Structures are given as structure tokens and as C-alpha cells.
TrEMBL record:
GO molecular function: kinase activity
Protein name: Cytidylate kinase
Keyword list, A-Z: ATP-binding, Cytoplasm, Kinase, Nucleotide-binding, Transferase
Localization annotation: Cytoplasm
Top-rank taxon, per record: Bacteria
Lineage: Bacteria, Bacillati, Bacillota, Clostridia, Christensenellales
UniProt binding sites for ATP: G7, P8, A9, G10, A11, G12, K13, S14, T15
Length: 219
């Protein structure tokens, strides 16, 4: 069984994907973490994620592996777990920049499909329903207003960054959505057969219940 969850930044994709995976005892694959890890690896090598030529020349030497430890996903670059370092605003932007490069995407999509061939999965990202798993059993497109999404990210960030600026977060989110939805190859787009869930006025539990209900009502 394959469940595809797509949508823009901060819409609640990973929250619902993790909960559904736990309920159904499926593996959860956060594909965003793979783009983030790729951006991190390039920055570590002194390469700007937007520098297509340099990224392409470093690509054959990029070794990425997905492992599951204690029930959660880790992304290994050259055998080293980089998961703790990939959730910064710099890496968010870098991930969106590197995600424009088709050759990089194809390499990650191969890995994503390998996971889907091996396990029942809930996968979240931008192009899962449209490109990675076009035959997924269930497809959801999770969204919310930019302000609400910025508010959610602000509340998360405030713990570690007391002077986080909600207006800046909103601008960053809107810029990233634009890069993601206007790139030529596998852009952020709702699949024709995906169920649209607007979570602007829904809390975590309501979204989880709604999506889980649609799945269990159909199987
Ligand atoms: O994966 P994505 O970027 O789409 O979003 P997320 O990481 O699942 O959710 C971003 C934040 O919004 C998390 O802190 C969630 O707890 C929160 N959230 C919420 O407040 N209300 C929802 N309906 C869904 C998520
Ligand atoms: O958690 P959040 O929604 O902020 O972002 P993410 O899911 O971790 O993804 C980070 C970036 O990776 C996105 O802005 C996209 O540019 C890229 N991405 C993608 O292009 N395709 C995917 N399937 C997943 C992520």
C-alpha cells in the first residue's frame, strides 16, 4: 500500500503522514529531508545549492542512504547521520534551490521508489502523487493559508530562536512555494486524483482524524 501526501511548507504534511504511518504500521518517508540533506552536503563541500554546474559535478560522489532507527527516519550522507542539521532556514532555502535540478531529483526519486517497493509507505513531499508514486492507493494534498503556515513555523521556532520574526517566516514560505511550484521538472502541484484538505481552521487532531478516516473508510 502506498499513501502520497503533498502540499506547501508548513501545511501539516509530516504531522499527518507520521500519525497515519504509526496507525497503519507503515514506514514514513519524509522526502523533504532528502532534499535538505542534499543541500547540506553541497554546502559542506563549499558548493551553493543553486550552482547547477557544481552540483552536477559533485552528484556522482553524493552517497545518500535512508535508514530507520528507533522508528524514525535518518538520512545518511557518506555514512554519517545529518538529520540533526537539516532543519535550519538556510537549509530550507538550499533544499528548494537544489530541488530545481532534474538530475538531482532523479537520483532521489530512485531512492524513494526503492523504499516504496520494499515497504508499505506513507510518503510526503511535493511531487509524490504527481511523479514519484502516480499509482499510489491514496493521495492527499494538504494546504493552509500562508499566514497560518507561517504562524505554525513561528511557534516551532520560537522555542530555540526567541527573536524569530513571523513576517520574515511568511515571506520565506511564500518565496519557497513559488520556487517549488514554478520549477519545470516535477513542480509542487495537486494531482488530479488527490483529495484536497485545507487545514487553515483545523488543528492537528482534526486533520489526522479526517485523513485516517478517509483511508480506513475505503480499505
Ligand atoms: O510537513 P509540513 O511542513 O507540511 O508541516 P508540519 O511540520 O507537519 O507542521 C508544521 C507545524 O504545524 C507543526 O508544529 C505542527 O504541529 C503544526 N500543525 C498545526 O498546528 N495544525 C495542523 N493542523 C497541522 C500542523
Ligand atoms: O517541511 P517543509 O514543508 O518546510 O519542507 P520539506 O518538506 O522538508 O521540503 C524542503 C524543500 O525540499 C521543499 O521546499 C522543496 O523545494 C523540496 N522538496 C521537493 O522538491 N520535492 C519533494 N518531494 C520534497 C521536498
Amino acid at each position: 500500500m502506498k499513501i502520497a501526501i503533498d502540499g506547501p511548507a508548513g501545511a501539516g504534511k509530516s504531522t499527518v503522514a507520521k500519525a497515519v504511518a504509526r496507525k497503519m504500521k507503515f514506514n514514513y518517508l519524509d522526502t523533504g529531508a532528502m532534499y535538505r540533506a542534499a543541500a547540506y552536503a553541497m554546502i559542506e563541500r563549499g558548493i551553493e545549492p543553486s550552482d547547477r554546474e557544481k552540483v552536477l559535478s559533485a552528484l556522482p560522489g553524493l552517497s545518500m542512504k535512508i535508514v530507520y532507527k528507533g522508528g524514525s527516519q535518518k538520512v545518511l550522507i557518506d555514512g554519517r547521520d545529518v538529520t540533526p542539521y537539516i532543519r535550519t532556514p538556510q537549509i530550507s532555502k538550499g533544499a528548494s534551490d537544489i530541488a530545481v535540478i532534474p538530475e538531482l531529483r532523479l537520483k532521489l526519486v530512485d531512492l524513494q521508489r526503492e523504499v516504496a517497493n520494499e515497504y508499505d509507505v506513507v510518503m510526503d513531499g511535493r511531487d509524490i502523487g504527481t511523479y514519484v508514486l502516480p499509482d499510489a492507493d491514496f493521495k492527499f494534498f494538504i494546504t493552509a493559508s500562508p499566514r497560518e503556515r507561517a504562524k505554525r513555523r513561528y511557534l516551532e521556532l520560537k522555542e530555540t530562536v526567541p527573536d524569530a520574526d513571523i513576517d520574515q517566516i511568511e515571506r520565506d514560505i511564500i518565496a519557497r512555494d513559488k520556487t517549488d511550484s514554478t520549477r519545470e521538472f516535477a513542480p509542487l502541484r495537486q494531482a488530479e486524483d488527490a483529495v484536497l484538505v485545507d487545514t487553515t481552521d483545523l488543528n492537528r487532531e482534526q486533520v489526522i482524524e479526517l485523513v485516517s478516516g478517509m483511508i480506513s473508510g475505503a480499505v
